[in-house]
Amino acid sequence: QSSNADTLKAQCRDAKVVAELWHGFQGGAPKDTLESLAVAFNKTLKGACVQPISQGSYRDLSTKLKAAFASGKVPTMAQAFENNMALYLEAGQLEDLATLGVKTNYLEKTFVRANTFDGKLYGIPFNKSVQVMYYNKDLFSKHGVKVPTTLAQFEKAARDLSKKAGSPVFWYQPDASTFGYFYFTMGGTYGDGKKLVVNDATAVKALELLVDLTKDGAAKAITNGYINNQLGSGTFGMAIDTSAGMKYWESGAKFNLGMTTTPGLKAGYPGSSVIQGTNLVVFKGAPKAEKDLAARFLAFAETPRNSAVFAMATGYVPSNTLASRQPAFQDFLKSSPNYSAVLKQARYADFEPRLEQWEQIRFDVLGKAVAEAVLGKATPKAALDRAQKQVDDLMSGRTR
Ligand code: FGO
Fold first, then answer.
1. How far apart are CA 124 and CA 113, in angstroms?
2. What residue owns the CA closest to ligand 1's atom 22?
3. Count of domains for the chain
4. Residues spanned by the domain of 30
5. In Å, how far are 30, 69, 262, 299 from 283, measured between CA atoms?
6. Which of 13, 202, 285, 394 has a C-alpha 20 to 30 A away from that of 209?
7. How far apart are the C-alpha atoms of 385 and 387, rounded to whole Å?
């Protein structure tokens, strides 16, 4: 079926050293591009190969890695969010990349910092994304509404356009990612770095905005998967979503698709955006020959050229700061002006907390609270207060 998969199988069949790379891509441009990268790398080798293996979703991936730690059968490499890294590091599973000679010259500094714990580098940024605003150019021009650049304009545009269209035009997934955009943009920080806070006044205000827009028929919660898969199900106006979905959005949109920076607090300044996507880590328990091969793969993945190719093919932010100077990248920006929003937004983006417990919290606690509130099962304040109690219990080890 997929020629990349066949090529990889052939490349790894007789290899003496096979470095498995467990990942959370499930298809589409991200998976294809990762596999193409591995195929190209393997062509430079004799008797060795990198074998990407999808483990399902990102969350399936971390679940399977934890099981691998317990059984002692770890892969060579894997994708990991920063909070996953905190957990894997605590479990003693991550290799210090300096010992493998991995360099970070020209890599995005904020991303590299997020991979650094106690002064040591445990991962390199690979597929890092930012949220951007996707919108329906045709709908905005049809009704003569200006594309919003501030939160106040955003709220008004959502209400005005929805009235004119006769149905809610701001579509969102009721989860921690969507909430994070509003929360960060309003100045939220999830606490002071000592105590994790999800129910401060800013959090309540952020969730109230989403709930009010929903109640008033200006926003629609998409509860069955990615927004880009639902674009045929009504009049879409705008959404805040990961730049990594760019190719999916482009193929799903039956209208002129616009991409721009997120609405912010003040005119002239984009809003914030949650940094998502993952880094590549190497596991201590893998054989030396595999770890050395992994280090070479990381260097290959991060060349300006390969970093540019990956970004152009997917919508991710290039990890190498020299990528955007590649002639092919310059041509790409001319033919895909939407993508420039991704580069601009990357300067206005925030990380979620880098805590071991965060993955569980963002899905099972915060994400649940957001869904409850927008579905009208609890007020934003009540939902977030309950979430805070669960956070406190998890952080103090009272629950697991
Ligand atoms: C996804 C998840 C986390 C954490 C954030 C964490 C775990 C969020 C969000 C929950 O690489 P990103 O930017 O985008 C993904 C990429 C590869 O699959 O393509 C996106 N995609 C895929 C198919 C499609 O039809 N449309 C589309 O946009 C896909 O989202 O990562 C963003 C979405 C989520 O997975 O539901 O990162 N996230 N922090 N996941 N496990 N842990 O700490």
1. 10
2. 245
3. 2
4. 3-128+277-345
5. 23, 10, 36, 17
6. 394
7. 5
Q: How far apart are CA 68 and CA 90, in angstroms?
A: 15
Q: Whose CA is nearest to atom 26 of ligand 1?
A: 245
Nearest-CA residue for atom 11 of ligand 1 = 277
* ipTM associated with this complex: 0.99
Q: Amino acid letter at 101? A: G
Same domain, 23 and 123: yes
Determine the residue type at 244. A
Residue of 55, 57, 58, 129 to test ligand 1 pocket, by largest number of atoms within 8 Å of CB: 58
CA dist list (Å): 304 to 52, 292, 299, 315: 21, 21, 10, 16
What average pLDDT is seen over the chain? 97
Asked whether residue 146 falls in the same domain as residue 206, the answer is yes
Residue with tokens 């697991």: 400
Mean local confidence (pLDDT), 71-100: 98
Q: Which is nearest to 45 in space by CA: 77, 11, 22?
A: 11
